[in-house]
Design goal:
Layout: E1 2-3, E2 12-17, E3 29-40, E4 43-50, E5 57-62, E6 71-76, E7 84-92, E8 97-108, E9 124-126, E10 133-135, E11 160-161, E12 171-172, E13 181-184, E14 206-210, E15 221-229, E16 237-245, E17 252-258, E18 266-272, E19 280-286, E20 292-299, E21 308-316, E22 350-352, E23 359-361, E24 385-386, H1 399-403, H2 408-412, E25 418-422, E26 447-451, E27 461-465, E28 469-471, E29 477-485, E30 491-498, E31 501-509, E32 517-522, E33 527-536, E34 544-553, E35 569-571, E36 577-579
Antiparallel strand pairs: 1-8, 2-7, 3-6, 3-8, 4-5, 4-7, 9-10, 11-21, 12-15, 13-14, 14-21, 15-20, 16-19, 16-21, 17-18, 17-20, 22-23, 24-34, 25-26, 26-34, 27-33, 28-33, 29-32, 29-34, 30-31, 30-33, 35-36
């Protein structure tokens, strides 16, 4: 069926209407192929006309010229209990020049479930009038799956909400950035958000949505709080909900469970990115030994086409809790118990070996050479080799986080910071800008350190530093592997910080490709300094800086031997011994440059 050409009268409308259908089942979808090509071809839309409703519901729109190609449209109709028909309207404002066509119209899964002679089993429900046998998980989920409404009879209204009359017993969180909005019909922005609700399948029904347009900003969060529930004990509490995540810049929807009121709780489920223009059902099984609450959190993406919808939220096998959840204190005492030192005669300027009580010079602490028998002089220092596989940061620390007071999870979850990661924990699509495998094991299970650019804003920087290194030798260098992939990657710098003075030793910016790259930075002889990795965030979250396998090579300082230098060695002016092969090689091997003297 096609429209080729017409006259140029104003506001032409060509309509193609379906037969009238009596009803549709809950999984009903309509698909067809369409062609809309030409300089002034105009728009097209598919409308749902339901008996008894004056207002049509827009199900689908094609905006103007879509190229010389056939495209497929898949439209979710869902449960429609009343007679309805579809109208495909072609609109031309003024002059029409182009071709519009439709072909291969298909209805799928639109029948109600068939009657059954019997319906046995603990997980089955036998519909009262239609005699269909359905899954018991479909009972009291705000959808008439039976076709006679019997699966929605005798349900506790306190355990379900379709948002037709408000938020029911759900509440907006006051600690988030903005609120979910109750609406009906399409959201204000084109090409994102639902066109209709899930309960009625029409523009008359209501649902909640998260508005991603201004003033909302990237990473802003809207949180919805459930009522409180008793622990399910030996039974299972089941949470069902329908979500809609349509738009090129849709970011994240997540569900948390908490048993303490002033915490974020723990993650039960999440979904990232565009999931298509459809409502999707999700079922979560919840266990808890304490009273609990569910949090549904939407997070704004990098633009205005990121609206997220929620509808038909229900609980099965759960009971409401009458009390309040406990709270925990977010203050810390600030006191620490000093380590017990052995008996010693050391001065304040000396370091006490923990096992023996031996005194060594403070400059021998954190110099990559263990001078104490128990190596305690190197214990609170950066590790010589770090691959992050033991899930520690090997002595590296973040000064900005150390300065923050209060509860860590409360204050730093959305801050641009360094953290441990691995490919196995990535969400779909994140591997485009974050390493899928580490460098050490070359697997998704291996760990690395990365600066997560889904937090923070353009230009933010984050440092991770070593504790103070007392002294290094003349050949000291730091070797590491870095991963900088993504369309909006920022930069990575290696800095040397001595007191209040910071100098740049190495820098790299921009996309370096989807692989680990080796880097080597010469340190040489330095004293009382820190090495700092500084990541700078790009314009969006599409670019995480990562490092792995950080190694300090040949960094222990020179040792004055308790003997004269041999005939194969050169005696430095400071009494150090070095191989004669190292003379006049443009490297300060002696630490006082006497091996490079012109008088040799």
């Amino acid at each position: 069926m096609f429209i080729l050409k017409s006259d140029n009268s104003i506001s032409q409308v060509a309509q193609l209407r379906s037969p009238k259908f009596r009803q549709a089942g809950s999984n009903c979808t309509l698909s067809f192929w369409y062609y809309n090509y030409g300089q002034s071809v105009g728009a097209a839309e598919l409308q749902l006309l339901v008996d008894g409703l004056k207002q049509p519901t827009v199900l689908w729109r094609a905006y103007y010229n879509e190229g010389n190609q056939w495209l497929k449209a898949v439209i979710q109709l869902g449960r429609l209990p009343h007679p309805f028909q579809l109208s495909l309207d072609k609109i031309s404002l003024g002059f029409y020049d182009g071709i519009s066509a439709i072909d291969d119209i298909t209805f799928e899964n639109c029948a109600l479930p068939p009657p059954a002679l019997s319906c046995e089993g603990p997980n089955r429900f036998w519909c009262r009038d239609t005699k269909a046998c359905i899954d018991s998980l479909l009972v009291c989920d705000l959808v008439d799956n039976c076709g006679d409404g019997s699966d929605e009879d005798n349900c506790n209204p306190d355990l379900q909400c379709n948002f037709e009359t408000g938020l029911c017993n759900w509440e907006q969180d006051v600690e988030d950035d903005f609120d979910w909005v109750r609406t009906q019909g399409p959201t204000p922005t084109a090409n994102t958000g639902p066109l209709k609700d899930h309960t009625t399948g029409t523009a008359r029904g209501h649902y909640l949505y998260m508005e991603s347009s201004k003033p909302s900003q990237f990473q802003d969060k809207a949180v919805l709080l459930s009522p409180l529930f008793n622990p399910p004990g030996n039974g299972t509490c089941i949470f069902r909900f329908h979500y809609h995540m349509f738009g090129k810049q849709v970011y994240k929807l997540s569900v948390f469970q908490r048993t303490v009121s002033n915490t974020k709780g723990w993650l039960l489920w999440y979904k990232f990115g565009n999931q298509g223009n459809r409502w999707i059902r999700q079922t979560l099984y919840i266990s808890s030994s304490k009273p609990f609450q569910i949090l549904v959190k939407g997070t704004v993406g990098d633009g205005f086409t990121g609206d997220i919808g929620l509808d038909d939220m229900s609980f099965l096998g759960c009971t409401l809790y009458n009390g309040n959840l406990p709270t925990i204190s977010t203050t810390t005492s600030g006191t620490s118990v000093p380590a017990t030192l052995p008996m010693n005669n050391c001065t304040e300027k000396e370091f006490v070996c923990r096992a023996s009580g031996r005194c060594i010079q403070m400059i021998q602490k954190c110099d990559f050479r263990p001078d104490c028998s128990d190596k305690s002089d190197e214990s609170a220092c950066v590790m010589e080799v770090c691959d992050f596989e033991d899930k520690t940061q090997c002595g590296w620390y973040q000064p900005a986080l150390e300065q923050m007071s209060g509860n860590y999870s409360t204050h730093t979850t959305s801050i641009f910071k360094w953290e441990l990661g691995r490919g196995a924990n990535l969400y779909p699509g994140q591997e485009k800008h974050c390493p899928l495998i580490d460098h050490t094991t070359c697997t998704e299970e291996g760990w690395y350190l990365f600066a997560d650019s889904s937090n923070g804003e353009f230009g933010h920087t984050v440092d991770i530093a070593t504790p103070v290194i007392s002294l290094t030798g003349p050949k000291c260098k730091i070797v590491f592997w870095n991963h900088m992939n993504g369309s909006t990657i920022g930069s990575l710098e290696v800095l040397c910080k001595t007191g209040n003075r910071t100098s740049k030793l190495w820098t790299q910016s921009g996309n370096q490709g989807p692989q680990w790259n080796r880097a080597e930075v010469f340190l040489g002889i330095r004293s009382n300094f820190q090495v700092v990795f500084r990541a700078k965030r790009g314009v969006s979250y599409m670019g995480d800086v990562a490092v792995d396998d950080i190694t300090f090579e040949d960094c222990s300082p020179l040792l004055i031997p308790g003997r004269p230098c041999t005939s194969e060695e050169f005696t430095c002016a400071n009494k150090y011994c070095i191989p004669k092969d190292n003379l006049c090689d443009f490297v300060n091997d002696c630490a006082d440059n006497s091996d490079e003297s012109p008088t040799i």
